[in-house]
Amino acid sequence: MLTSVSRPSGINRAVTDGSVQPAGYQLDWQDVPVLVQAFRRMVRSNEFDVCEMAATTYLVAKEHGATFTALPVFLVRGFHHGAIMRLDGGPIDHPKQLEGRAVGVNRGYTVTTGVWARSVLQDEYGVDLSRITWVLSGDEHVATYRPPSNVVSAPSGPGLAEMVASGELAAAIGVPGGDGLVPLIPDPATAGLASLRRTGIYPINHLLVVRDPLLEADPDLAPALFEAFAEAKRRYVAAGLSELDSKVAEITGADPVPYGLEANRHVLNALVRAALDQGILTRPPVLEELFAPGTWNLSA
């Protein structure tokens, strides 16, 4: 029995509802209502046998000695052009205007949405990220990680959205729109798809990790888990893709949500490059070393 955590969604529902089981194993699904708390519990205490995890949290955890390893099963993807919010009618209406100012980041600096959003600012709009003070509303999942010097904690009191509304922050990443906040990048959905056309990158947000002692004791475990989640994904594709996944498929002419290392190497390299640029990683990892042996040549 493997204690497991993953938020049910179309792509993994057949596994999380028990319709599909990994051959020879049984998954005992744990109730963790706030998924990011599962990330933290896994990073800090290896609490689960199998756990969904944000991709950058995983990269940081591995650099800091985590004893769990990913499978090339990518459960959440999305574009992040709409994650950066500004005050409607305020003084900021272009990404370059963020330079020299303070920008909020919901939770920690290593949050994956923040990493992808900052890469959009840098790569698509030429923003010098080092000229921005990044203001965090929380701490990092990986307690031993130390951010760059231009990353600070928000003062106690108002939340990030209120700080944007008051002008204390020029913008914030990862806060909801409404109440006077609008995306800094106009028509972010169209901007995300335009980025896909240019780069071929459909950003990965979440993957799956397994405790190392289990993987080392049983070389059949990783392939069995991969195949179970691959079968769930096949059922999702057969039943009909989400609207966004369908648009990605139309643009690429391929499976928009592939599993496997090779099919995702270009996306993973882009995420690693962004993490290095932003001072989240100190050295580039070997991608194969991030994934369990026995899964390197698998695809779905």
CATH architecture of the largest domain: 3-Layer(aba) Sandwich
Oligomer: single chain
Task: Enumerate the spans where pLDDT stays under 50 for 5 or more consecutive residues.
Answer: none
Query: Based on CA inertia axes, which overall geometry fits?
Result: globular
Category by helix and strand content = alpha/beta
Average pLDDT number: 97
Please give the largest β-sheet: 6 strands, mixed
Helix content: 25-40%
Biggest sheet strand order reads 8-7-6-9-5-10
Q: CATH superfamily assignment of the largest domain?
A: Periplasmic binding protein-like II
Order of helices and strands: EHEHEHEEEHEEHEEHEHHHH
CATH class of the largest domain: Alpha Beta
Radius of gyration of CA atoms, rounded to a whole number: 19 Å
Provide a compact summary of the structure.
This protein is an alpha/beta fold and 300 residues long. The chain has helices spanning 13-16, 35-45, 55-63, 112-125, 160-166, 188-199, 212-217, 221-239, 243-252, 261-277, and strands spanning 2-5, 27-29, 50-54, 68-77, 84-87, 102-105, 133-136, 151-153, 171-173, 181-183, 204-211.
Helices and strands in order:
Layout lengths: L1 E4 L7 H4 L10 E3 L5 H11 L4 E5 H9 L4 E10 L6 E4 L14 E4 L6 H14 L7 E4 L14 E3 L6 H7 L4 E3 L7 E3 L4 H12 L4 E8 H6 L3 H19 L3 H10 L8 H17 L23
Parallel strand pairs: 1-2, 1-3, 6-7, 6-9, 7-8
Antiparallel strand pairs: 3-11, 4-11, 5-9, 5-10
Question: Can you give a write-up of this model?
Answer:
The chain has ten helices and eleven strands. The protein has 300 residues and is α/β, with parallel strands linked by helices. It has two domains: 166 residues, Periplasmic binding protein-like II (D-Maltodextrin-Binding Protein, domain 2, 3-Layer(aba) Sandwich), CATH 3.40.190; 115 residues, D-Maltodextrin-Binding Protein, domain 2, CATH 3.40.190. The strands form two sheets. It has a six-stranded mixed beta sheet with strand order 8-7-6-9-5-10. Strands 2-1-3-11-4 form a five-stranded mixed beta sheet. Helix 4 links the parallel strand 6 and strand 7. The longest helix has 19 residues. The mean pLDDT is 97.
